[in-house]
Design a protein that fits this description.
Elements: H1 3-27, H2 33-42, H3 44-55, H4 58-62, H5 67-88, H6 93-100, H7 102-114, H8 121-142, H9 149-178, H10 184-200, H11 212-238, H12 241-244, H13 250-261, H14 269-303
Length: about 300
């Protein structure tokens, strides 16, 4: 265990994912979301295979005991990615990033619904706080359906971003089931493979021929996304998830910087206020998950000989 290394790897992966989103946004005017998902997934596969080979997990990463589980996880995750990429073309980068942070909050709800996990008052309060934050971010957009064309487009972007967070939360439920029987490397590889195949089905709906700049953006998005995924998976080996998970929220700061300096996007007060609540709720949920994990660990030690 090396906490400092884990945090650095996590921050590097966060920077990679935000950069990937910025590249997708830069290409969004000329490339439809399904095509963007295809390029992002396809060009991540060689990176993932190289990472698995370097890590000594190539055979293990290609072997699966639950192909149907990977298919469902891939279907939900690919849908989330497509919706998120659609939102990036309609809304500022920091706003999409902030709304997407509803996913961990929604995961708590879905875990109670589908996995039978107990959600007590503390986590319910955190979930409620996070949902209030999401509503604050969404409210200026959703009240704009009755206004001009630009406002309607941005309202649609907000709805798509929230739907992306919902599908991402559902995908995480399947990941929780898969981690019990599959190696993390297997989950990473088969998601990229499934996303590539599923996104290719959108060809009849009108793919575009990318300009040279858009092609570079798309290829870089795939490569950087693959590298970021490898960095993230490696980070989990050096520290517990509850230790490095809060650093996800560094993506808000990075997306604010990229949005302002590259896309000339000035954050609104509702977006900043809502994002603060969402981040606070997420950190509270992570802290509570860590406390519950420690309690379960102490309980198991008490039940084993010498656990006193």
């Amino acid at each position: 265990m090396n906490t400092s290394r884990a945090i650095l790897l996590k921050l590097a992966s966060v920077a990679g994912f935000v950069s990937m989103a910025a590249l997708i946004k830069a290409a969004s005017d000329g490339v439809p979301p399904g095509q963007a998902v295809f390029f992002r997934s396809l060009f991540a596969i060689p990176v993932i295979l190289i990472w698995l080979r370097w890590d000594g997990n190539l055979r293990r990463g290609l072997r699966t005991a639950n192909p149907l589980g990977h298919l469902w996880r891939g279907l939900l995750g690919t849908t989330a990615m497509g919706l998120n990429f659609s939102a990036l073309g309609l809304l500022p980068l920091p706003e999409v990033t902030a709304i997407f942070f509803a996913a961990p909050i929604l995961t708590v709800i879905f875990a109670a619904m589908f996995l039978g996990e107990q959600v007590r008052a503390f986590r319910l309060t955190a979930v409620g706080l996070g949902l209030v934050g999401v509503l604050i971010i969404l409210s200026p957009r959703l009240t704009a359906f009755s206004e001009g064309d630009l406002s309607t487009v941005q309202a649609l972007g907000a709805v798509l971003a929230l739907m992306a967070a919902t599908f991402a939360a559902l995908a995480k439920i399947f990941v929780r089931k898969l981690v019990g029987v599959e190696h993390p490397a297997t989950i990473v590889f088969y998601f990229s493979l499934t996303a590539t195949c599923l996104s290719a089905l959108t060809i009849p709906f009108g793919w575009a021929w990318p300009s040279p700049a858009e092609m570079v953006f798309l290829v870089l998005a795939g490569v950087i996304g693959g590298v970021a995924q490898g960095l993230l998976t490696t980070a989990f080996r050096h520290a517990d998830a509850s230790v490095i998970a809060p650093f996800d929220y560094a993506s808000i700061l990075l997306s604010l910087a990229i949005g302002y300096f590259i896309f000339a996007e000035v954050p609104t007060l509702p977006m900043l206020a809502g994002a603060t609540l969402v981040i606070a709720a997420g950190i509270l949920i992570i802290w509570r998950e860590r406390q519950l994990g420690l309690e379960r660990s102490k309980g198991r030690q008490a039940m084993t000989p010498g656990g006193q």
